[in-house]
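Notes from the 1:1 (GR / supervisor)

We went over the backlog. Supervisor wanted to see one worked example end to end before approving the batch request, so GR pasted a single chain during the call. The sequence is below; no edits were made to it. Supervisor asked that the structure be written out right there so they could see what the output format looks like.
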Amino acid sequence: MTATPARRVLLAAPRGYCAGVDRAVIAVEKALEQYGSPIYVRHEIVHNKYVVQTLEKKGAIFVDETAEVPEGSIVMFSAHGVAPTVHAEAAERKLATIDATCPLVTKVHKEAVRFANEDYDILLIGHEGHEEVIGTSGEAPDHITLVDGPEDVANVEVRDESKVVWLSQTTLSVDETMETVDALKQKFPLLVSPPSDDICYATQNRQIAVKRMGADADLVIVVGSKNSSNSVRLVEVALGAGARDAHLVDFADEIDEAWLGGVTTVGLTSGASVPEVLVEGVLEWLAQRGFEDVELVKAAEESITFSLPKELRRDLRAEAAELSGK
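Structure output shown during the call:
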């Protein structure tokens, strides 16, 4: 008789919540505790279906535009950041605001403003339509050109090739970004790099862990939502690292059992906006199908934390009432 090959799960570490997401989610929960519902949130606080649904049940109301928030209310801006025009819209509508922008995104915003003030052409590497890109572009719209991948480089024009700098959306794949940077440097040899690497530490760490397990995995499952840029990138990184197959799921019940055909090793990770309970659900689903042996694939230790938005230390309900004259 032929022995059945051992089935195992390679579990990536780190995975799931990064410091910026943790801060943003806690900020919504604290605001609801402190001020009661409703707390309006402009766009999804983070790109995860489960997190948004959970916060909605607690009293958060997610809106697409600031104009949807009633005057005299509290509105929170998501972890992806917003353009200055959005802050102006909120002031015009007499809204009290809580800014939950990830501090690493805020850093990119400040770099954009500084380079624009020095009259640089700023080449922003990122995906068109992503909320983070919209927010960063809004900081210096007259100076920023979006570069959506290396194939976009041929179309880029600048005023002065000696004053060009690149910045990046924080949630891209490291390899993807550097491929675009290399293409830009070939076209603009004097291209300036930002003072520090703008790819988020959490994005890098999660990608490194997936690369380490990708070649050993027949199948990689990434837990995350389809609108989560960093989660989508993890699927691409897994395939690039040698995984035979890779899929993105929000929940365990989205896994197709057909994916397990001929599979003895499953790699498992989650995007930076995914709570651990969803990973535990997938581990349980896999264990029920014989994948009980779990090995940790560790790429880095993460100890970074961010303090909560300063606005949570004020009485925003009173502030909102004063703004609206109530």
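Supervisor's comment: Residues 19-35 form the longest helix (17 residues).
Batch request approved.
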